[in-house]
Amino acid sequence: MIAVNRGPRARVNATGWLCVGPQGKAVRLVFSTSRTGFTHYDFPELIDRVHQRLGGGPVVLVWDNHASHKTRWLRGRLGAREWLTVVLLPRYAPELNPVEALWSQLKRRIANRAYRSLDELENAMRSYLLSAQKRRDVLAGFVRSAHLTPDPIPSTT
């Protein structure tokens, strides 16, 4: 997740998933932005949207160890989804999370500019993320940056 502040309460937040599909499928980026932020109460709906965008098959969600990802309420909600398996990364290991490379690139792209409004800032963020969605090679590079392969192991069945 990324949060960009402008003023004491004004901010634009983004959450995103780099999705590696079955063999032959390219890496995909699914993201959402918000002015009010994301809490653990938002994640079930966001994950359901990702699931739908990916065609409704089984999903293995590899998540960082953020406290909001481990609440009892959220574990209960996600546990009810038979199609979902959640794997938590070790604490303090951003180098293992490919989305962190995406956020790093986004921050470099939007940094050191004077935005006249939150709309302008949000548009710059969304423009970069929409552009990144089309660059499958760049998305695969983010996955490789975490020492993972963007090419899933072929099924033996």
UniProtKB/TrEMBL annotation:
Domain Tc1-like transposase DDE, residue spans: 29-121
Pfam hit, one: DDE_3
Protein name: Tc1-like transposase DDE domain-containing protein
